[in-house]
């Protein structure tokens, strides 16, 4: 696809969005073809016993949300990580699939004749149908043009949703009742735990299918097209068709996650389609790491936890999430998964323990310093926006007056000392890192 | 006829504002190959800074200082953010600017709160410039038009007639050659990014009082700016101008004339169904043009991309 080069005057030659320059360790691993069952069995086992460990309803809700996000993030990563296509409107495929499932739920005559667990499949098919239409013209190139079309189409559908009341229900959205479905082996899905197992089952199936997809020739060619579309074309594969297949498959799984959303929450609104949701899934996927298959799963788990737990603690959680995201892009483009996999060489060399003490010496002061900075941010926010006369605030289990000088001095001092110590010890960490990653000569 | 003239002026104001944003964006894009998703956020920052400055020093100082601050921030973002991310490739660059847009929105909410701030036009411009058949055109609108046109002409002059413009133009096409001739290309990139964001800042300063200054203003305008430069053809300054004006006029006209979809459909020979309330397509029939005004740019963009993927003024692909 040389065509996109010429339409931009003098853009750097890499108009096609690819991921050049990333070390091989950060890219999608295309190594062995052997497919190991063990991780899947472990995952299934963990999902089976999780609700027995965390029994309360709010934990179940968090886990359901996690599962839905996992499928969505994996579907998103099929485009971003495997195909190099950056979509800014992917919530649309999940959302429209969800809306469709909701309409099935409301068509009670039809809905009563089939079991609920099948419902997400319809969402998937509908998401796939939409992706077929949009993909037919948007996958011509993977570059900026694709990103722009995805944004435009996403905005178009999201803003139409307020107008097209018959399908999207306008501002209020549409809601349904999952219990009208035919009982599935006697299960009526009245309880949260039943929905949990339904969702968990779909997560396993979809994740496995997506993993297998990444091992098919199309999945492999998606990687090739991402890294070097011209060469892939030269080998006789149409880059456009490879992208199209990836796009459609991604739409299918996004639709499944939308269907699960419909089952879990029983309501869908414009929020499921808009740019915020699309942006959020990009954030989740990138935070987890687009380079590895398990990256988005990690991202979905961590992000959902941060979102649910942190948002209970502070109103400013989205600032921290945004800062974390920007920092990730700047310093760890491999995301959490990349960060973890960076340590594999050290483990293989048997030198990982060399890293332990330097890590403790650098990361703990750094973490304390960052927490102190967060405290300063919280205090500033309280100082500016707190109710009049309400000077008391509680932070890290201490209650103090945010209008007096002392807490500010303490927080600032901790921040300066923490960051200072981290900076001072950073060189020795770097040394240890280099030592741990070079073969030979253990100390 | 008079109403058409009024709408033409209104559309021109919107279009020129849009152009100020899209000019900077397309300049940055054609130079660095990266779409700055945070561009509309700098526009928002411009409005907020101008509001803060106008409290203390008045509107005019805001108009002078706010774009300067925004431009410096933009240059800083390029120097310490984008340049660092560039080594990872284009996807992380795009994602970086996207994250920056989120972060800026959050920070603005942090500092100024979630509500609108009372940022007003200067009193000296609060009079009716002229009236067309009973529709008064405020002086501020005329002022906006003059500022936008002035900046456009200035930009065009700098880019095409001066030595600085010559070097920038050369760096756009042949960065390595320009570097070999002894010019500091990274510095030029930084400068262009700064000037681009400063332009967005100016747009924010003068649009703030009219379109109201609130944390969602970047989110409202951001996608439209991208639509404008995609329709115009990525990297084409003239395309950005034409597309911006086109969008400005289309939306203004769609909003002011209440055209019903039913009339159009009847006009092309489709009869209104008997039981409209039962029909699944009832929304199609009850739509009016003001309702769809805001999505018209997106429809236009999708159409342009299908039929002319390079945009109206973009160079032909293939």
UniProtKB/TrEMBL annotation, chain A:
Comp. bias intervals (Polar residues): 16-25
GO CC, one annotated term: plasma membrane
Keyword RNA-binding: no
Location in or out of the cell: Cell membrane
Molecular function per GO: branched-chain amino acid transmembrane transporter activity
TM ranges: 37-55, 62-79, 85-106, 118-139, 145-168, 195-213, 244-268, 280-305, 317-342, 363-385, 405-422
Main location: membrane
Segments of this protein annotated with the region Disordered: 1-27
Topology relative to the membrane: Multi-pass membrane protein
Keywords annotated in UniProt: Cell membrane, Membrane, Transmembrane, Transmembrane helix
Biased composition (Basic and acidic residues): 1-15
Keyword hit for Transmembrane: yes
Name the UniProt record assigns to this protein: Branched-chain amino acid ABC transporter permease
Organism, scientific name: Sulfitobacter albidus
Taxonomic lineage from the root: Bacteria, Pseudomonadati, Pseudomonadota, Alphaproteobacteria, Rhodobacterales
From TrEMBL, chain B:
Compartment(s) of residence: Cell membrane
Pfam families xref list: BPD_transp_2
Membrane-topology annotation of the record: Multi-pass membrane protein
CDD domains recorded: TM_PBP1_LivH_like
Coiled-coil ranges from the UniProt annotation: none
Family: Belongs to the binding-protein-dependent transport system permease family. LivHM subfamily.
Protein name: Branched-chain amino acid ABC transporter permease
Species of provenance: Sulfitobacter albidus
Species lineage: Bacteria, Pseudomonadati, Pseudomonadota, Alphaproteobacteria, Rhodobacterales
